[in-house]
Specification:
Strand order of the largest sheet: 1-2
Order of helices and strands: HHHHHHEEHHH
Radius of gyration: 20 Å
Low-confidence stretches: none
Distance between the termini: 57 Å
Largest sheet: 2 strands, antiparallel
Mean pLDDT: 87
Number of strands: 2
Shape: globular
Structural class: mainly alpha
Number of helices: 9
């Protein structure tokens, strides 16, 4: 099983995505396109096929990659609702960290988001299926996900089980989709956290330098 500290999260990358940007959307879909026929026991392989299914629900056209890209704005509402939940999850995690009571309650989201999140989670179903693994057929309990939005919220559940919060890159201001143990450790110490590339850190440093320069000019 893949370590949660080595895994990229579709739900995080989808929220970061600029759907309006045609090229960015194309790169995103190509990146997550299954390399083979998806199995229901591998939810990460289901996201893009379910995106195609979402488009089939609104048009009778033959659905190919170009048609998916053309209708990409269909996903804006789903993204907006999900972004609200993820933002609330992030803010609630920060609030949990400030609590000092001996018997404190760590919430997942605020009261305002509970009903909306429950409505999404109620759509997640599980089923018993046979799966061929290393020469043996095994009966396994797997998520039975039938639509794209539900696949996103199932992925969100997986994320919350693996990580206590989302990390925001101090450079680009987007969520980090593959957070490491060291990034979480730095965040707990109050250090700035960045994507694992030089660009975000360099942008952050340049912006800090510009701010210091402006302050120096105004003194």
């Amino acid at each position: 099983m893949e370590s949660t500290y080595l895994r990229k999260w579709f739900v995080v990358e989808f929220v970061n995505l600029d759907i309006e940007d045609k090229n960015e959307f194309k790169v995103f879909v190509e990146k997550w396109m299954p390399k083979y026929s998806p199995l229901h026991t591998i939810p990460d392989e289901l996201h893009v096929p379910l995106m195609f299914q979402e488009i089939r629900n609104i048009t009778s056209d033959f659905i190919d990659f170009d048609v998916l890209v053309e209708h990409r704005k269909v996903f804006l509402k789903i993204q907006s609702d999900l972004r609200h939940i993820l933002t609330d999850f992030t803010n609630t995690a920060a609030l949990n960290a400030t609590k000092s009571e001996r018997y404190k309650i760590n919430n997942l989201v605020s009261d305002d988001s509970i009903q909306k999140l429950n409505e999404r989670l109620e759509k997640i179903r599980f089923t018993l299926k046979s799966q061929y693994v290393d020469g043996t057929f095994l009966q396994v309990i797997t998520p039975d996900i039938s639509d794209f939005e539900t696949s996103l919220y199932y992925n969100f559940i997986q994320y919350t089980t693996a990580h206590p919060s989302l990390l925001v890159c101090a450079g680009c201001k987007k969520y980090i989709s593959k957070p490491s143990y060291y990034q979480f450790a730095n965040a707990r110490k109050g250090y700035a956290t960045f994507h694992a590339n030089d660009f975000c850190r360099q942008d952050y440093t340049r912006e800090k330098d510009r701010i210091r320069k402006r302050k120096g000019e105004n003194t």
